[in-house]
Amino acid sequence: MNKLRCHSVKEPWQIELMRCIYNDNLDMLSTHPLPYKTYEEQQNWWQENKECLRAFLYEPIAKPGKFVAFLVLRIREGFCTPIIAIQKEEWGSGYGQEIVHDYIKKADGPIAGTQLQCNKAICHINQKVGWRILGESGEGDKKIDLLFHPGVNPANQCTEEGLVNILRYLEIDPETFDFSVILK
User: Fold this and answer.
1) Which of 122, 61, 50, 54 is nearest to 86 (CA)?
2) What is the pTM of this model?
């Protein structure tokens, strides 16, 4: 049973809510250095990128009007990349798993991403929903997994060109990559 209601982001006040949740979660979002964003920076980022973004805010059905998480899907060449964040006081509520399932459906095709290996909750969720680890980078507590998900829509499978774009996005050399990892 769903615990969350999803709302498309379109208005400046919604973009501001996303910014607040984002800034509160930088330490768990950052598989690479991310800056704190001001109101103006967030609004400008949205205006410059909104054509290739689909964003959503989530509110618990049991707490109408309280937005606790966001999802941004960036549409790229042949695939999407997700960013999700949940307010810290809502961690452990089961919302992460629901949002991951939701964005896999919303992406409607192949997805690329990264996860901090030290974030055991997201690593567990990602493994359960079928993300495949294509490689890793970083060191110590900033070690990250480079991820691929084929999507759930059989009509929108990853093309060879899309796969090469995913590898390049993840900074994996397509010339030396073992494609059997994806074909499993």
Assistant:
1) 122
2) 0.89
